[in-house]
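Lecture notes, unit on protein representations.

Consider one protein chain, 594 amino acids long.
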Amino acid sequence: MLRGAIVCSGLIALTVWAPRVAAAPSAPVPAPPGMGFTPDVRADTAEGSATGQNEPVTAVDQTGKTYITWQGASNGGTNTVSTSDGISFQALGATDSSGNEGGDVAMATSSWPNPAADTPTGAAGSNDVVWADLGSNTCGLLGFRASFSLNQGTSWTPTDAGCQPFQVDRDWVAAYTPPAFRGTAQAAAHTLVYDAYHDFGASDVWVSRSTDGGVTWTAVQQSAIQAGSAGQLTSLCNTYPGGVAVDQNGVHAGRVYVVWDTGDPPQNGSQGCNLSSAQPFDHVFLSYSDDGGSTWTTHAVFNDPCAPTPPAPPVDPTTCQDTSEGWTPVAVDDSGNVYVAFTWLNVSSTNPEYDVFLEVSQDGGNTWNGGTSGLNGVGDAPGAPIKVNSTTGTHYYPEIAAGGNGGFEVAWYRTPYVTVTGALQKPATQPGSAVWDVWIAQSLNVLGSGGFTQSQVTTHPLYFGDICTIGIACGTPIPGAAADRILADNFGIAVGPDGGARITWTDARDSWGPGCLPTTSPNDDTAVFCQTTHVYFACQTTGLGIHGETVTGCGQSLAVQTPEVPLVPALLLGGAAVAVAGRRLIVRRPASSS
């Protein structure tokens, strides 16, 4: 990352940031030092004693302020907070007080003028925050709703943002502001916002778009799957949308990426399609668009060895392994390299277990990990995925961030218990003795074979027992998984202008006590369902940021406005690093390979 001059505390310096052109992979470098975080802190205290909050996500605006939103106890539009220190949380205005909101919340902010330094709030319109969720609209109970705020969440303007006859599920949101408008009063009005989701019919993956920062949205959504592609022929009636991201500063600036995973056509059709999750999701696909979402190009990111040339079906579908133990998130670093992570069980490894894997594209989404691509995605041959974690156990729900040129971070839920494969190649249940924490891995040089450093994020375990990973199919006869969906289906990670990670997750630890503790007996719903949840948060305070810089924590030191400056604004650099009370350095547990 190109950085401005470093100055003494209290002085002002001009800094000019420009996107870095993607370069050839550099030589291997040592893994970065361990990452330290603030102690776990409850973020949803605005909801008082109510429980059931889950699926939090987080976003950071150009000033370094962190936003956290979730679904659960009070889905009345009041389930959003902000923090400037990672310890105290301010309840924000109602994101959607219409009563139409539903869940699956997501957040994004307008593009920062400088991805490696705080930028003052600036003139009105320079700092857009977008909130999205499922909600009722003219198409039914599960449409797409969105709100935007131009005053850091004090007030919000909600609207209907997407409509599908077959309804909407699992939306993700991303935003992009052209460089000429970043940090100016025209930023919000020129910010493109993309929301990706799938439907409950053919399970197509759709994108709804706003070209004015969330004020208005396209009346007709576009399918993000290229017509006639291998991805389209493979994905019919069965997709899990994993995320959406935009290249902010790289060689394909403005390119939007959408990712999903799916099974194979015969199994998709015969085992219940979209709703049952009864088949292994053994393929990951990505589409990209350079024209704002009007047209798309689709390629394979990962194919399980059981079916290497989709849409050709596997010879033996019982050998296919699942990638749906969480989503398939996508992120883009500042040089335009694209990252997709997923959980997968590699049956060819010495000790197979559910691990976190990574695929990287250095050519804008066409080829992955040194593989090759074919016309319309037919014959795509992605390279072998990179195993990220070195700990033994079960690793679910990867959430990712990227920055610089090869900087990458992924967080996940981990238990030391090794889960085996169960019915229909889905994970078997974990026992009541399985205790879960949040972990994170960081590499500052993925492109040059840089090593990963793992750190534990959570101060205390967040959950015990089984985690069901098949969404609304949890507890159904097919595929027969337990109903243990207490943590719901995702959590959140974001990176601030200091390069430090901000992580929020669903946490059941407050409900532990006599009669509700990890047990050595096999898992059963009675033991697990004594747990209730809140939303917790931690902010990185030690180690290196995603660009290789020294992190300063969640502290926000910039509150003044600066005159509007086009293209390369003058930035007021913060003074001495803001100390965050109670910070701690995680001592990493010994890592063992599986």
